[in-house]
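Narrative summary of target 7.
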Amino acid sequence: MNSQRIQNLQTKLDTLDVGAFIITNTENIYYYTGFKGISEKGREAMVVVPKVGKVTLIVPRMYELQAQNLNSVQNNTISIEVLDKSESFINKLSKIVSSISKFLMEEYDLNIEEYNKLKEKLEGEFIKSDKLLYKLRSIKDTEEMKLIKKAVWLTDLTFEKIVDFLQTNDYTKFTEIDIAEKIRSISFELGGEGLSFRPIVACTKASAQPHYLPRSQKLQKNSILLIDLGVKYKGYGGDLTRTLFLGRADKEVKSTFKYVLHCNEKCIDLCKSGVKFSSIQKKAVEYFGKYGLEEYFIHSIGHGLGLDEHEFPFPGGIDDELREGMVFTIEPGLYFPDKYGIRIEDVLIISKNGVEVISNQTKQILLEI
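Modeled conformation, tokenized:
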């Protein structure tokens, strides 16, 4: 599948009249070559995709064996260049592309030092990619769909087991951090690669913070518990948010839950190829506005999902039109400061026939534990 992705990119480079694309982002390197190191921030590889010819993967000596075992290398789609002991990525890169006059670069990934050194070494023209790779990645191929569906299934099952844990134990003995670590443990037990992001486990007033890091406060009876998690599988991640109530919810909480649920369902019904993601965002705001609640909806209606937990498409982002093959979330929420918050998040795929919801965990009622 890497060969088809490379071919698609090289076709695009031909239309842009550039000689090569210098790829530096970790996830983009993985997408085109299958290579991934252990560091999320350190520079462990670079890739050169020429307009014509074989792709080159540059790695340090310590990754040579791993690179040689890649399918893309074994099938001769990609060649390897290994850094000498004292050689830098920039020096090696400059030797490989010395004859090329125009380059696309990931301007949002290269740091200033790397860029300045490249400018010193090469006389070619550097052109911003305008996040071209992220746009290409927003349309998932068949292989990616299978991996994402498996990641979402693992995410659903992990949540199911957490609910079972809460129902069969005295949850007041556990902290938010305890539950977050339990989520991580379950994800590994089920065969996942861990988590896509640090899980959100927010009890009581903490649930009013959309992005919240679990703390050492214990779970409390008669309170909201918001859980947002995603399990990784072969590089791809799921994403699911469900809001529970520990005890018996009052009328206000149940009413708020229904508003969020109805917004979730209405937004999903609007999703299809050709629709602007930003128009879905607008409809969510309009729906909550009917009930005087729009000021409590404080984030976007969703985001793309794949190798990154947040990727194209984004509502209102560059070219936010939904297209067949896109995978994204719909996640309306209402957040009342110093009180509580409720969010319901599902993962969707745009298909030929409309939209497919691949999150399977029930959401039709507020689950009371």
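The first helix runs from residue 2 to 16.
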